[in-house]
Design brief:
39% of the residues lie in helices and 21% in strands. By secondary structure, the protein is an alpha+beta fold. Among the domains are: 89 residues, 3-Layer(aba) Sandwich (Rossmann fold), CATH 3.40.50; 67 residues. Strands 12-11-10-13-14 form a five-stranded antiparallel beta sheet, sandwiched between helices. Strands 6-9-7-8 form a four-stranded antiparallel beta sheet, with helices on one face. It has a three-stranded parallel beta sheet with strand order 2-1-3, sandwiched between helices. The two termini are 40 Å apart.
Length: 342
């Protein structure tokens, strides 16, 4: 099949994606080994997208969620290719909003009865004292829509109102939007890579993420840790693994995720597991990104096999669409032949 990998420069790294051009090249080479004709296209304008439509690839693999625009609204790839009737990998625009907005995902899952950490949003000056806060310290502050641990550091963990105000102000100055405030969960941290095949079968790869110890014995999975890969990814050795998988699958299904996605979870000190966030265009850097590493650690699935499994669902849609088109052409031909006979 003719496949194009689609990405776009995003210097702010605000949104998650497969990663750098090197990660896209890793995927390209893997798809080539599957026997497909594949190219990589970096989109910077609507003309680039129009050219892709003219080429009519069988499938576009979306390595990013959108193309940033300076004057008009950002162009979401899933929305654009759906409108132009080109099959694309991953979830649709409606579902991707749960990746871009952590609060929206939490609200949706709360309404579905799925456990998430207690939370509220805040802007500087909104709360005048500790007594005004919706629940007690310690709290954890982070941006609503940033990726890769951006904005998260040791100061994200706050124990009093002075620390709360200081971190809130610094994040708000940087991100210019309300800040997510969560109850602090002091237990183990997990990430779960889920791949759902075209036939509905799921491959679930759950691992534990252990950040290095920092100030006061805390383990904060923040921006610097993720940037320098100083965290440890390991098999889940406790009997928690079934609870972790069950919660991750429940979140995956409730959010309506298609094909693949990564669900992040965390435990409290009592061992209860909570949804933290969803990553629906997960990092795919060979050797370091959580999604392929989870598959490798938990299920001994190689990078090439991960890419192959991720493509199973969308290639199934391509084949189904071609079969429908062939049936329609056969019917049209039969009708023409019948009309000619008369």
């Amino acid at each position: 099949m003719r496949i194009e990998i689609i990405t776009s420069p995003n210097n702010e790294l605000k949104e998650t994606g497969f990663g750098s051009l090197l990660a896209c090249t890793n995927i390209l080479e893997s798809i080539e080994r599957m026997g497909h004709i594949v190219t990589l296209t970096v989109c910077t304008s609507l003309n680039d997208l129009d050219d892709i439509v003219k080429r009519k690839p069988d499938l576009v693999v979306l390595a990013a969620k959108y193309m940033p625009m300076k004057i008009v609204d950002d162009v979401w790839f899933s929305e654009y290719f759906a409108r132009n009737k080109i099959t694309f990998s991953g979830s649709n625009r409606e579902t991707l909003k749960y990746d871009s907005d952590k609060v929206l995902a939490k609200s949706h899952l709360n309404n579905a009865g799925i456990r998430t950490a207690k939370y509220f949003t805040a802007i500087p000056g909104q709360y005048q004292s500790e007594a005004d806060l919706p629940f007690l310290f310690p709290l954890f502050l982070k941006p609503i829509d940033a990726a890769n641990g951006n904005g998260i550091d040791d100061l994200s963990f706050v124990k009093n109102f002075v620390e709360f105000e200081a971190k809130l102000l610094s994040l708000h100055d940087l991100y210019k939007s309300p800040i997510l405030v969560e109850e602090y969960l002091g237990g183990r941290e997990y990430t779960v890579a889920i791949i759902k095949a075209y036939n509905g079968e799921m491959i679930i790869s759950a691992i534990e993420v252990v950040a290095p110890e920092s100030t006061g014995g805390l383990r904060i999975l923040g921006e610097k840790v993720k940037k320098f890969d100083t965290e440890n990814l390991q098999k889940i050795e406790t009997n928690n693994i079934e609870n972790v998988k069950e919660l991750a699958v429940a979140a995956f299904c409730s959010l309506g995720i298609r094909g693949f996605g990564r669900i992040d979870l965390k435990m409290n000190d009592s061992g209860q597991c909570f949804f933290m966030e969803a990553n629906l265009v997960p990092g795919m850097n060979l050797g370091s990104s959580y999604f392929p590493r989870a598959c490798e650690i938990a299920n001994e699935i190689s990078y090439d096999e991960v890419v192959h499994l991720m493509l199973d669902e969308c290639l199934g849609r391509v084949i189904f669409k071609k079969e429908l088109r062939d049936i329609a052409l056969c019917k049209a031909k039969s009708l023409r032949q019948s009309s000619a006979a008369f």
